[in-house]
Amino acid sequence: MKSSEMRNNALFTRNQFNPVGKWNIPLVKKQEIPSINPSLVSINDTRSNDNEVNKAKGVHFFVDDYRFDGIYRNPDRSLNKLSQYEFLLTPDFSLYADMPMWKQIESVGKNRWCGAYWQSKGFTVIPTVSWSNTPSYDFCFDGIEQNAPVAVGMIGCKNSKLSFLRGYNAMLEKLNPSAVLCLGKPFDEMDGNIISIDYLASRKVVR
């Protein structure tokens, strides 16, 4: 590809969506959770031409990054498969305190870009929120509208409870979400309109 073509390639610039905040992170617009009692299926367990039971679920990305990084690199490739499902959570690209800050910002940007892209295709999208330590609060809540439902994952949080709760409370203060889809058992100290979803159940799909 010529340099001029690359310069105008949307998958290179990733600049086609409304940017917000200090870091120009794409905005995922507020959408409601389409089910009163939502259930989820892991991206690992999605299939082309899935059955009706699974199509009625949302798709989560609380798995290792390498299992879904291709969804960001080649977003068109997965559209037909993902379009079957009732809604999508944005991909949970990892944020760890020992990652350099540029890498953490990139993870948030990729998360929101995927959400904005899917919304542009007519999908219902609920943003996944994650954080590392206090400095990450400067960007990790960007790209999400006030009073929108969000999703959080409890996988791996049991050994860092205080850090998780600090970030969770900062998220509540910043975003005031209408609901929190919580994949995994929430801590008793967590406030908000929490909708708890069993992680193991999300991995037991009907085939």
Question: How does this structure look, described?
Answer:
The protein has 207 residues and is an alpha/beta fold. The protein has one domain (3-202). It is built from 8 helices and 9 strands. The strands form 3 sheets. Strands 3-4-5-6 form a 4-stranded parallel sheet. The protein is globular, with a radius of gyration of 17 Å. The model has no long low-confidence stretch (mean pLDDT 92).
Keywords:
single chain; 207 residues; alpha/beta; 4-stranded parallel sheet; 3-stranded parallel sheet; 8 helices; 9 strands
Uncertain residue segments: none
Which percent range describes the beta-strand content? 5-15%
Q: Mean pLDDT across all residues, rounded?
A: 92
Q: Tell me roughly what share of residues is in helical segments.
A: 25-40%
Query: SSE order in H/E notation?
Result: HHEEEHEHHEHEEHEEH
Helical region count?
Answer: 8
Query: Looking across the biggest beta sheet, what order are the strands in?
Result: 3-4-5-6
Taken together, the total number of domains comes to 1
Radius of gyration: 17 Å
What's the SSE blueprint?
Layout: H1 3-7, H2 10-13, E1 19-20, E2 25-26, E3 40-42, H3 52-55, E4 58-60, H4 69-73, H5 79-82, E5 87-89, H6 101-120, E6 125-126, E7 150-153, H7 161-175, E8 180-183, E9 194-197, H8 199-202
Parallel strand pairs: 3-4, 4-5, 5-6, 7-8, 8-9
Antiparallel strand pairs: 1-2
